[in-house]
Amino acid sequence: MYWRNLAACAFLAASLAMSARAETSLITRAGAWQVFGGTTAGGWPVCGVSQSTDGRYFALKYYARDTTFTVQMGAKSWRLAEGALQKLQMVMDGNRPWVTTASGMRFADGDPGLEFTINRSEIDQFAAQFRASSVLRVQFADWDVAEWSIALAGSNAVMDAFLQCIQGLR
After folding, report:
1. Could you give the maximum distance between any two Cα atoms of the chain, in Å?
2. Mean pLDDT of 99-113
3. Which of 7-11, 85-89, 113-117, 163-167 has the lowest mean pLDDT?
4. Is pLDDT at 64 greater than 70 in this prediction?
5. How many domains does the chain contain in total?
6. What is the CATH number of the domain that holds 123?
7. Is residue 56 a contact partner of residue 140, using CB atoms and an 8 Å limit?
């Protein structure tokens, strides 16, 4: 009995320690966008701006001390293998397309997603387009997935909070 209780206590303590490590909190909202900051399950400080609408998720994240920003997107309806490569382009209003190849991944809840990075040297250009544009379109090449159209109302306000969060990371 003693060993069973001890094992149960150890398991509970380990579970609490792991869940305490992954903690983000809402910083602000504007329109459908929200800014969050905190730490990942791996203990890395993170800041992000995201929107989750109609079963679809789009986020721009910065992990402390990275040389890139990470874009993640996903939809519950997607059928996508982890590590699968997918060509796509993002277009904000009439600006030059951001063309990339994203990698298939799984979110913590098991939903499929894609992720790719934007070089830190390009974030000012991305942020300027994100702030000033009204629509972000994501087009998937050679994949039977409809183009996404994401409203950018509120993006100027959330970008300010996102950049302030990043400045506070150590």
Report:
1. 69
2. 95
3. 7-11
4. yes
5. 1
6. 2.60.40.1880
7. no
Within a domain: residue 10? no
5 belongs to a structural domain? no
pLDDT in tens, 142-169: 899 999 999 999 999 999 999 999 999 8
Q: What angle do CA 92, 104, 170 make, to 5 degrees?
A: 70
Q: How many residues does the chain have?
A: 170
- Which residues form the domain of 60? 23-168
pLDDT for the residue 112: 96
pLDDT score at 13: 36
3-state secondary structure the chain: CHHHHHHHHHHHHHHHHHHHHCEEEEEEEECCEEEEEEECCCCCEEEEEEEEECCEEEEEEEECCCCEEEEEEEECCCCCCCCCEEEEEEEECCCCCEEEEEEEEECCCCCEEEEEEEEHHHHHHHHHHHHHCCEEEEEECCCCCCCEEEECCCHHHHHHHHHHHHHHCC
